[in-house]
Design a protein that fits this description.
Elements: H1 2-23, E1 30-36, E2 65-69, H2 77-82, H3 87-92, E3 98-102, H4 119-135, E4 139-143, H5 162-174, E5 179-180, H6 182-197, E6 202-205, E7 217-223, H7 225-241
Parallel strand pairs: 1-2, 1-3, 3-4, 4-5
Antiparallel strand pairs: 6-7
Helix pairs in contact: 4-5
């Protein structure tokens, strides 16, 4: 009997090693970089309830994904590059990281020469983002510019980024990278809400609704918290639909009968 237990004791480290080998190492942490404009960017409290759709995105992933939102208000592909906002990301990219690329709103702003980028230059800039990401063995994902709220007199949501969405789609096809067509998906969503209810998605405030906007706000480009979350959900749904490897890192939903965890002495287990 003593010899038997001695053999078991000696074999235990090897058995543990085998079990761990089959279980596999936990996935390494990766970064998901977001580059784009104000529709995606983080916001300061002085502009609340304006919310970029990149802000709630972090809540959809598990702890192995670090969302690094580098999107900036008012930037086009040209100014993002000119201000040296891209190169530090390239230098930091690691194998397995992702870069979500969503521009267009400011590139198409012909009335603002400081940011306007003609479609062909926009194409070149997207290609630069894509190819430099790939050289670092990271994964670029192109996203068409998210729609502005614009209904015609018959209540139909209009397409607001025709040329720039087309270029984005063409670059994705040419370089065989994933495309998330946020333009179309967000138009469909806004249409589902309708001309009146879709105001809930955008920064539409009456005078007195919020102290940050005492005189109200009528903005058909930027989102409320609800709108930002809905737009982020569109991107997440497409990650799942396209079976991108990133989908494996989405947060797992709690069971329906789970009790949400709390802090302190009243903490409850997550399952009965």
């Amino acid at each position: 009997m003593r010899i038997f237990f001695s053999c078991i004791k000696k074999a235990w480290p090897l058995s543990l090693f085998v079990l761990l080998a089959f279980a596999g190492a936990p996935p390494k942490k990766i970064k998901l970089y977001l580059i784009g404009d104000s529709t995606m960017a983080n916001k300061v409290k002085q502009t609340f309830p304006e919310t970029g759709w990149g802000m709630p995105l972090v809540t959809f992933f598990d702890s192995t994904v670090v969302v690094d939102n580098r999107a900036q208000n008012g930037r086009s592909t040209r100014t993002f590059l000119a201000e040296n906002r891209w190169q530090p990301i390239v230098d930091a990219l690691q194998e397995g990281d992702y870069v979500f690329i969503q521009f267009g709103h400011n590139d198409e702003a012909e009335n603002y020469p400081d940011r306007y980028t003609p479609p062909e230059d926009y194409r070149k800039n997207l290609i630069k983002f894509v190819t430099e990401t790939q050289r670092r063995k990271a994964s670029p994902v192109l996203l068409t510019p998210i729609t502005r709220r614009k209904f015609d007199k018959d209540g139909h949501q209009q397409e607001t980024h025709v040329a720039y969405s087309r270029v984005t789609t063409e670059v994705a096809k040419q370089y065989k990278v994933p495309l998330i067509d946020l333009d179309k998906m967000s138009r469909d969503l806004v249409q589902q809400f309708g001309a009146e209810n879709s105001k809930l998605l955008y920064l539409q405030l009456a005078p007195g609704d919020h102290p940050n906007y005492p005189y109200g706000k009528e903005d058909n480009t930027h989102f409320t918290e609800l709108g930002a979350r809905k737009m982020a959900q569109l991107a997440i749904n497409e990650i799942k639909a396209q079976h991108l490897p990133l989908a494996e890192r989405l947060a797992k939903p709690l069971p329906k009968n789970a009790v949400p965890p709390t802090k302190g002495k009243d903490a409850q287990p997550t399952t009965p």
